[in-house]
Amino acid sequence: MMSSAATGQDNISIFHQHWWLEAASDGSIDWQGIDSGSRGHILVPICSRRKIYGRANVPPPYTRLFQPRWQGKLTGGPSEEPDAVNIAHLLRRSESMFSGFDHVQFVFAGDSPLCAALALNGFSVHEHYTFRSAAIPVSDELWSAMHPKTRNVLRQCIRTQSVEATDDVEGYIAMARAERGVLDSHDYDALRRIWCSVRQKNQGTVLTVLSRASQALAKCILVWDDRCLYYLLSTRCMSPEYQNANSLLVWKAIEISQEKGLSFDFDGYSTYDSFRFQARFGLKVFARKTVQRSSLLWRSMKTTKRALENAVIRREWATS
Fold it and tell me: Which of 22, 35, 115, 234 is the most buried (most CB within 10 A)?
């Protein structure tokens, strides 16, 4: 369970909300405190998972940001140490908190003094990227900044397709399973738990692109907090009528973010094709930081697992 000190819900990401973490982790989230009366305190999220090659503290499923919270003392005196120094000092005193894990991973939105302090304690820091509107998006400006090919695709989609918003997560799951087949590794039980809480909070929707014959062509799941709307998950049907329906999903999601006065976040990319698709919408690159530390056994087993997964993918492609 989460301590009462960690349940403040104002002005924090949806991924750090108490209800999200409880649902995503199936109630196994906990927070451990590192305290010094003169230097402030840090609350560290613990979501322990047992893997075949060790014990890990990692983000729960679909939780894009997962980081400790620093709460400094508001003394403001000229002799006070900078936050980064106080954080590094506290983390050095709390090494035993991480000693029981073969792998520890946090994900930060942008820069944080916690990243530098963790790096001093043997963690590696890696940047990965998403596309995000820099401020509240304005449709006319984004339309002008968009690549001409994407604008042409959208014009065609708007003429031949429509978009509806529902809470039908089961429809999304069915389409996703059909698209991904044997390679599907998603945790749909976790998604169902999260979605139940999201709908209770009215902080998400499922968008579906429909053909003129009312066939579902593509679906996405959107979630939001008081600052940003996230393009959390997407899938498509395998029909030849698909016709770039994902472009219309993205544009509708951007319009919804504008209506709500929020920034829009593509929620990352993993391939060159997805990078090019997202870049053509004219949004700005935004960095997230993954901060992690692993044992030698963990790193070796992950490398072997990745090689086996790539072999399966190549075999799938060869037989498709």
Answer: 234
